[in-house]
């Protein structure tokens, strides 16, 4: 047994150690945040957008699309810049708030007259000088396009390069800083591919069109708002378009160190203010793009814009709009994958980014989200580790499932209500991993315990109790131990007359029918069946497993046993009425006592039993045998009453015991907690106490008056109890008539012999 207890303690420590180490490993992974974890987290956020994409509100953002139909009409790309000038003029005349080209015009137009002249020679043209003279009269295409840009609110583009050798763009936007200058801590680009200087100078602004793509999946989840060469800042195409559309002169960048921003030790951009719009950003100055599906409502084909017959139809779609000019033609290779799983033109990403800024429908991931998720992983893991020994595997699994569901639900609600991005997956998976590691090891070690428990106790304890011992073997204390216990004795009243009317087979069937459900009730209330003695049951509580409020469990079991006997009688479960036996119903008596007793394995080395002995057991047996004399079905000792005061009791008498200077006070247990608080019991208890007091004083007349009040308030099954009191009061009255006096120290109608059963509540002094 010591070996088992040592094993149990060692098992607990080992399981806890493995679980804690597993949890620490999971927390370390979360803190270091390897790429695979970032990928899983972003897939979770993608699923949110797929389930609940941004609601589309037709807003002042439009895409003028160089689509397949436009290419078919105007020829392959690149078009002459005069065509783009025509497009720019048309959009300006329609009232576009800004015209932003998602196209880098890095080289001169090869169809311009000047470039054509450079490539002409006498070998391919007979009258070269005359032709050159005519070409020289034509305007340069790039100049024409530059003039259209200058006459319109326009933005041209530059692309960020990963290699050196490019040129820096011309920045037309001013930048102000709140906090640290982002140019000092953001990763600088190597170089850029800008549009021609004449276009950058002519246009109202110049912005970067490069997007932040996942290196492996190619999914565009975030878009940079600012770029840097390490010295200066440059806006993105969308930021510049929004600035120009509002007529703002610059952009305010807020970062760590600014007023209201906590100094975390890590430099980071927190938000941009573009005109009247404030945009929350990632630490790198990016914005999470909150996508809507790529719907046709955003697009207007170039062919429709340039078709003068449709001018009245198209103008309302362009007027007051932030217009992005881009291409959806597959052959021009400007296609991107979004978290929604769609492949969209790159210009759609810029347009949707501006839509969410205008509607202030942002997705944000707070800078403290990583720390919160790591802390959640650690905290929930500790809850699971602590819960497993307390509530078991199933309870812990349910608790873990509820916590995981709460994390997912909370994360989803944060996304839907506030656009916040929190990862519920890794904390849930980490806790699951901890739980699996913990329960697997626990299962292996628990199986070893269970084999020992079944071998040691299966021969003399009920399967129900064996199962409890298997679940909590550390509570076993065998070999003799003094414990505070509650002991129950139950006996069938009038068993001899019953047995005389039954054959041996019928008698066994009767006992099984009676004792089986009564035993089930005892075990249901966590009691241990000690033994069956013919028609009697001996049971006890608080061993081998410690039971809180064991006296209350015993009282509740005794009351339920009486109810069960009533049900069996009512349904004629014993068949007495059907067979016309003289005995029509069965009655039992139950005695309960609480006190210290010795419990453990008792018997010989070859045959033993787990049982309890001591004065508390003997007193319980005497209490049960006193039920008939007192007229009560269920008697308990004063010790049990004090241990379970919540039940309904009536004072019943005293038992004088051999070798004891003080008798044992008895109480009839007549109801549970709910009955104790009824008006009927209140009246009965008051009348009963008054009757007992009168009997103590030797006042038979007064006692008789209170007896009548008790009879009126008592239930039917309490009638025998008061018949015994009535006999005692009558004997008291007779004594007074014969002697003409009241006993000096009370009255004992049944005598004071130590072996006699109890009397109704009369002082035994």
Automatic annotation (TrEMBL):
Residues 486-624 form the Guanylate cyclase domain. Keywords: Membrane, Transmembrane, Transmembrane helix. It comes from Roseibium litorale. The chain crosses the membrane at residues 398-416, 428-445. This is Adenylate/guanylate cyclase domain-containing protein. PANTHER family: ADENYLATE CYCLASE, TERMINAL-DIFFERENTIATION SPECIFIC, ADENYLATE CYCLASE, TERMINAL-DIFFERENTIATION SPECIFIC-RELATED. It holds the Pfam family CHASE2.
């Amino acid at each position: 047994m010591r070996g088992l207890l040592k094993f149990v303690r060692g098992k607990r420590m080992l399981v806890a150690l493995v679980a804690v180490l597993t949890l620490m490993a999971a927390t370390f992974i979360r803190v270091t945040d390897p790429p695979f974890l970032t990928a899983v987290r972003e897939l979770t956020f993608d699923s949110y957008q797929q389930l609940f994409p941004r609601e589309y509100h037709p807003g002042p953002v439009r895409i003028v699309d160089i689509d397949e139909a436009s290419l078919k009409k105007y020829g392959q790309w690149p078009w002459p810049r005069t065509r783009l000038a025509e497009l720019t003029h048309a959009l300006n005349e329609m009232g576009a708030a800004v015209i932003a080209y998602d196209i880098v015009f890095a080289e001169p137009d090869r169809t311009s007259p000047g470039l054509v002249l450079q490539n002409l020679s006498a070998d391919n043209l007979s009258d070269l000088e005359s032709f050159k003279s005519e070409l020289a009269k034509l305007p340069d295409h790039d100049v024409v396009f530059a003039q259209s840009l200058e006459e319109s609110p326009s933005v041209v583009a530059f692309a960020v390069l990963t290699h050196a050798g490019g040129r820096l763009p011309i920045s037309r936007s001013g930048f102000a800083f709140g906090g640290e200058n982002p140019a000092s801590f953001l990763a600088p680009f190597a170089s850029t591919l800008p549009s021609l200087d004449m276009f950058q100078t002519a246009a109202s602004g110049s912005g970067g069109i490069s997007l932040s793509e996942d290196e492996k999946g190619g999914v565009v989840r975030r878009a940079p708002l600012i770029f840097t060469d390490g010295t200066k800042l440059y806006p993105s195409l969308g930021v510049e378009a929004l600035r120009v559309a509002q007529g703002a002169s610059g952009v305010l960048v807020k970062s760590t160190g600014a007023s209201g921003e906590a100094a975390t030790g890590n430099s980071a951009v927190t938000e941009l203010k573009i005109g009247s719009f404030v945009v929350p950003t990632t630490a790198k100055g990016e914005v999470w793009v909150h996508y809507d599906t790529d719907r046709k409502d955003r697009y207007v084909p170039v062919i429709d814009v340039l078709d003068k017959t449709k001018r009245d139809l198209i103008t309302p779609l362009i007027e007051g709009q932030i217009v992005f000019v881009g291409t959806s033609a597959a052959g021009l290779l400007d296609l991107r994958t979004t978290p929604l799983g769609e492949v969209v033109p790159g210009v759609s990403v810029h347009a949707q980014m501006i839509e969410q800024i205008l509607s202030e429908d942002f997705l944000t991931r707070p800078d403290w989200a990583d720390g919160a998720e790591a802390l959640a992983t650690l905290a929930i893991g500790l809850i699971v580790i602590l819960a497993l020994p307390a509530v078991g595997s199933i309870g812990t699994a349910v608790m873990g499932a509820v916590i995981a569901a709460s994390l997912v639900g909370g994360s989803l609600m944060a996304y839907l209500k506030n656009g916040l991005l929190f990862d519920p997956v890794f904390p849930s998976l980490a806790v699951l991993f901890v739980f699996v590691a913990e329960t697997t090891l626990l299962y292996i070690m628990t199986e070893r315990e269970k084999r020992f428990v079944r071998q040691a106790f299966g021969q003399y304890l009920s399967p129900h109790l064996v199962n409890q011992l298997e679940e909590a073997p550390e509570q076993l204390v065998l070999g003799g131990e003094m414990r505070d216990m509650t002991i129950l004795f139950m006996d069938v009243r009038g068993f001899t007359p019953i047995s005389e009317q039954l054959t041996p087979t019928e008698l066994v069937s009767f006992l099984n029918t009676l004792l089986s459900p009564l035993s089930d009730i005892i075990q249901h209330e966590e009691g241990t069946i000690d033994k069956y003695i013919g028609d009697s049951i001996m049971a006890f509580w608080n061993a081998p497993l410690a039971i809180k409020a064991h006296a209350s469990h015993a009282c509740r079991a005794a009351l339920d046993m009486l109810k069960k006997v009533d049900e069996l009688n009512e349904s004629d479960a014993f068949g007495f009425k059907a067979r016309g036996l003289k005995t029509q119903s069965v009655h039992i008596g139950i005695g309960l006592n609480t006190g210290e007793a010795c419990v453990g394995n008792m018997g010989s080395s070859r045959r033993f039993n787990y049982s309890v002995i001591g004065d508390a057991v003997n007193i319980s047996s005497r209490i049960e045998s006193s039920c008939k004399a007192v007229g009560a079905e269920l008697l308990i000792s004063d010790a049990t009453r004090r241990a379970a005061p919540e039940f309904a009791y009536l004072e019943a008498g005293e038992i004088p015991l051999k070798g004891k200077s003080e008798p044992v006070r008895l109480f009839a247990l007549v109801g549970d907690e709910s009955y104790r608080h009824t008006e009927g019991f209140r009246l009965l208890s008051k009348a009963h106490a008054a009757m007992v007091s009168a009997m103590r004083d030797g006042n038979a007349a007064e006692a008789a008056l209170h007896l009548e009040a008790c009879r009126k308030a008592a239930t039917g099954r309490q009638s025998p109890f008061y018949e015994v009191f009535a006999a005692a009061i009558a004997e008291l009255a007779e004594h007074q008539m014969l002697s003409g006096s009241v006993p000096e120290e009370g009255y004992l109608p049944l005598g004071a012999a130590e072996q006699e059963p109890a009397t109704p509540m009369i002082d035994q002094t």
